């Protein structure tokens, strides 16, 4: 999407063919800085310090990280070191492992001489596939926004509410929850987005507000407490959020606080949509209550980062010394509160039986293939 | 309640009989500072800059402010100036007007010579009545906490969740929502409090955490997004919040975000209690949806105050330049989500018919009396 009028992706191969550029997201919204990765160590550090974040972007970063590693040494042992270095950078990220395994599958079958070039091709393919998926999610979601607009008699902008950042910054381009909004905006449908600030890490107030603003989409930042009031007063036509993991049964694990907005949406008859690529569905779990929830550092609650009036970005303490804090990162929104899942294949009220069946078969086939390969 | 082991009220007459002390709440939780008011101007400034806040405490402050004014000049014209000065300090605070009218009723009937001493007596009475009311709310609420404890077989602490600050800092002592918690704690019932940080002004993370910590009550600060997750996982036995205004029908206007917690409580069969003095019931309104909601400065959303690692308290910016923000201060929780209202007269599922009738009659009598007096 656009930054200062110029289209960007979150990660790209530079013209020199031997280095990769990314946006350093740790400095947003206060500073827009592009950093260059020349080595696999640069990529691993960028994943570790969260210069890049969001499952799809982490996968793409790992792909390019492998490619940078293969440039220096394409041997089998070097590959193994590169794999381990990148995997250790963010071991809980499912997409990281997925991307690394995909690189391994392709590369280890090739002669070392061919590996670097092939790695850049596969990394590019991972990026392009992600863009296609997000774009498709965007199109299916745009249709829902357009319908909401028609329901107002095209008389006023459609008011959407989103939580956290499931925008293009979390993917390679378009985003998931924000893709429908960008597609609608680009198609001339008037939209206005309520942006939950999303404590404790404030990805809404910092990343979502920043990317919507740069693309020119009208938006207003609100505290996480405000969405219920807005829905009670008819100021939200629909909610769209992303998902970190969705169960085969349709329960949605997403940023903490998503569940509260889903409850308010239900209480006020506001449609509540979840946008996600099928790759984020966990076909092995039906009931969302069995998803383990990460408990992150209490410091994220006790402290907050912001910009002083002198322009310095720093952390300040919010809580009294001696007060404990607790920081669960996600919650689970049960399926009955979700109006529809917006995927690259369309919007579904529940995940179709057929899709579940096909996916399970594909997974078993994958496992068989990996087993053969591992021998 | 206690600060560093020593019992305090939020406002008190000093031993010299001619000055009043208050806790400067703008510096909490980072600094505990007592300031002395020697003049009505000091009191007005303290109300204006929110060194004192919370309806009951504002009322008590106005009472003592009048007394300080009468010390200097007890004449009728001076009284009028004092009234106007204090009223202008926070004109939307209902309790401010109520306390000033009460002072006027008593003082203007007296000889000017007698007014200063009488004013201190009435101000003290306003304080003592508030303490009695809060203490009674605390006792009725303690019984509910004790019942919850018994329901666990007295096997573990009772987990409570509260939003914003309806503690002793908002009143003269005890508080409203926190009074039952202090009473339970002092009675040896093991309690643990989840403290919503309560964006945007963070009264939970700063004031509630501070006062619970100083009294020794176990507590944990959480972001406003987390309560739903905790209730889904059986980690909240009951919620207690305060109320800025409750309608005769039982709808509760309280800090923004209260409604979301009430929805989560209902969805997880967690009792949701509202603690309030009867004086905060608006007998003229039945439907909470007709309460006008204050929209405060967007700067409260865009900026936040905290303490740097150098120990300096400062404001930092959270949102991108150019992103709008909106800041509704309150929301309304409909009566069907409230398990009971805990008042100084007991806990009620709905406000008893008889109480409504008596109160309406009393109000009309009051009006007649004021009319007579105004003539």
Q: Note the gap between the termini of chain A.
A: 44 Å
What characteristic shape of chain A results from the CA principal axes?
Answer: globular
Oligomer: homodimer
Give the biggest sheet of chain A: 7 strands, mixed
CA-based gyration radius of chain A: 21 Å
Number of strands of chain A: 19
Instruction: Please state the structural category of chain A.
Output: alpha/beta
**Could you report the average pLDDT of chain A, rounded to the nearest whole number?**
94
Can you describe this structure?
Chain A has 375 residues and is α/β, with parallel strands linked by helices. Chain A is built from eleven helices and 19 strands. The first copy, chain A, has a seven-stranded mixed sheet. A four-stranded mixed sheet of chain A has the order 13-10-11-17, with helices on one face. In chain A, a hairpin with a 6-residue loop joins strand 3 (11-13) and strand 4 (20-23). In chain A, helix 2 runs antiparallel to helix 3, helix 3 runs antiparallel to helix 4 (94-107) and helix 5 (112-151) packs across helix 6. Chain A is globular, with a radius of gyration of 21 Å. The model of chain A is unreliable at 370-375 (pLDDT under 50).
